Amino acid sequence: MDYTNLYLSPLGEITLASNGTQLTGLWFKNQKYFGSTLEGQNTPKDLPIFKEARHWLSLYFEGKTPGPTPPLYLKGTAFYKDIWEIMLGIPYGQTTTYGEIAKRYAQQHNLPSMSPQAAGNAVAHNPISIIIPCHRVVGSNGSLTGYAGGIEKKVTLLTLEHVDLSAFSTQRNR
Predict the structure, then answer these.
(1) pTM score, whole prediction
(2) Mean of the per-residue pLDDT values of the chain
(3) For residue 49, what is the enclosing H or E element?
């Protein structure tokens, strides 16, 4: 059984999803891959995990470092989960590239290399936006490309974290 709850953020409505004890989804309204981890019917309900997630998000949107993440349950392939775990290690206020994520994955799995595009596909399918900070992943060419919630939200989230955006471009090719 999936449960859902709404959070009204400064960037718009966010839908939270849970299995009852852990967060399984967090999407901006109408974002790409919205509801990707929801299985069939879901029940709107207020649960302790949603209260914890809303508190974390409120601190985050106040510009504060929100601390440890609420309990998460990652639904996806083993590859996707590994990439999402790597993203969880990106510190607040810092960015990394798709290539760096691919390199780290390759190192963890004793592979000679891995495609940044494959890593990018996993980043794009992140079902727990903001908390798993896919907005902190940028192109190796300095582009702020790719964010399922929209590039404007990515810029706002990075600005909220005091990331210096002067070196970045919102153009796909620089």
Answers:
(1) 0.93
(2) 93
(3) helix 48-61
